[in-house]
Amino acid sequence: MWRLFSSLWRLFTGHSGRQAKNPYATFGTTDESTANETFDDAMVSPPEPPRHQRKPKADQRYPRLTKFRYQPGRVSDREHAPQIVTGTPYRYANPFVVSPGMFLDMSNDLRSERLDRWELPQLKTPQDLADWLQLPLGKIAWLTDRFTEANRPVDASKSHYHYCWKQKKSGGYRLIEAPLPLLRQVQEQILDEILASVPVHAAAHGFCSGRSVVTNARPHVGQQLVIKMDLDNFYTRVRYARVVALFRSLGYSREVALWLARLTTSAVPSNLPFPGGEPKQLRLFLARHLPQGAPTSPAIANLVAYNLDVRLAGLARSFQVQYTRYADDLTFSGGEDLQYCSRVFLPLVSQIVRDERFQMHATKRKFLLPSCRQQVTGVVVNEKTNISRKEFDRLKATLYNCVKTGPAAQNHNAHADFQAHLRGRIAYVQQLNPARGAKLLDLYQQIRW
């Protein structure tokens, strides 16, 4: 065994693992101090391994972030805990099965001061919610699938959503869940009178009043490096429990938060057909989640991702990097320092995304240098905010053909108001490049409608 070990040692290090002979015998001296120095010099130390084989020390490895957590007992909510009370329960209250005649009161934790801060409607019980929506409480319970087995529709024909599968450019399918008219009316009221009053983080630019793809791209103009990343299944990964916690944080009682969360989330039927068979991707939609296609989903997703924006903005600030988010598109930009520290910066970004219960898209990551076209949410940001040459030429050709052959022949997508459609596209170009927008506007004014 020793011979085998010695052979392997000589093979990898180039010398024997045995120690040198006794220096007393070699030099024939009885001076112990001289002998010790000679013995130390005679010891052969193993050579230093190549750089790519060296293991980094503990303080040289990538830093790890520690998520801040509240200390136990620091925030007490015992006075607002659900109580088992006796008396006439409110409609659809949870009965206490151990003692008949009693029920679990989950409407006693309303935080009026929080609701008054954002001027939100005061809703304490399900009946208050029904009066605010001006609908019978039984109909609202029907919209939340309260009367169905497993609290989900039996099949697609009994659902309150219209399902449509669309194929992604990167592969796979995206499920569009469009609410039916009555549920859409309820969700629009929740959006206009509750969610729209709560501000989002400054780095969020998608589906926010006063912000657009232009404001999302403007901080990245003239940067040496632009990094684009994508969150995988952004809406679907926001589950029912997180939506309940959001409404609770706004100040609503547990009871009302549960009802609001059910009105703004969806659980697809277990027998929903999937294009091409029965893949594993369908499992992602079985639990209650934010439906992509509901008017409330973008606003709820922005509020749920507030902690994500806070942590990513703080990380970017420490590296002197610009950060913005448009829905599920994350964009970072910076100078030459970002190119050298990206090996440390990007793992920290991925760690924060995982900690906040989101997931990065493995293949959608782009590094854009000044030598190529740096495009952020469709806006070119190399030197200034601008429209791409390809998109400008396409719109210019459409307007030119409208002048020559008439606008009816150019309405290939059958827009109901093609005139307003073209005017909106020209206004978008004017916002990015006024000179190009003026040329397009001159062609537009020559069209005979």
Explain the overall architecture.
This protein has helices spanning 2-13, 23-27, 32-42, 112-117, 126-133, 137-143, 181-193, 213-217, 240-250, 254-264, 297-304, 306-318, 336-355, 389-405, 418-432, 434-444, and strands at residues 83-86, 94-95, 102-105, 161-167, 173-179, 225-231, 322-326, 329-334, 360-368, 375-376, 379-380. It is α+β, with helices and mostly antiparallel strands and 449 residues long. It has a four-stranded antiparallel beta sheet. Strands 1-3-2 form a three-stranded antiparallel beta sheet, with no helix packed on it. Strands 4-5 form a two-stranded antiparallel ribbon. Helix 9 packs across helix 10 (254-264) and helix 15 packs antiparallel against helix 16. It is globular and about 75 Å long. The chain starts with a helix and ends in a 5-residue tail after the last helix. Residues 19-30, 38-43 and 72-76 have low confidence and may be disordered. GO terms for molecular function: metal ion binding; RNA binding; RNA-directed DNA polymerase activity. Residues 39-61 are annotated as: Disordered. This is RNA-directed DNA polymerase. InterPro entries: DNA/RNA_pol_sf (IPR043502), GrpII_Intron_Splice-Mob/Def (IPR051083), Reverse_transcriptase_msDNA (IPR000123), RT_dom (IPR000477).
Keywords:
single chain; 449 residues; alpha+beta; Alpha-Beta Plaits; four-stranded antiparallel β-sheet; three-stranded antiparallel β-sheet; 11 strands; antiviral defense; EC 2.7.7.49
Strand order of the main beta sheet, please? 7-8-6-9
Radius of gyration, whole Å: 32 Å
Q: What summary fits the major beta sheet?
A: 4 strands, antiparallel
Mean pLDDT score, rounded? 85
The N- to C-terminal Cα distance equals 95 Å
Low-confidence stretches: 19-30, 38-43, 72-76
- Percent of residues in helices comes to 25-40%
CATH superfamily of the domain at 202-238 and 302-385: Reverse transcriptase/Diguanylate cyclase domain
Structural class per helix/strand content?
Answer: alpha+beta
The total of helices stands at: 16
Would you identify the CATH architecture of the domain at 202-238 and 302-385?
Answer: 2-Layer Sandwich
Identify the CATH class of the domain at 202-238 and 302-385: Alpha Beta
Strand content: 5-15%
The overall strand count is 11
Shape: globular
Q: What is the element string, with H for helices and E for strands?
A: HHHEEEHHHEEHHEHHHHEEHEEEHHH
- The name of the CATH topology of the domain at 202-238 and 302-385 is Alpha-Beta Plaits
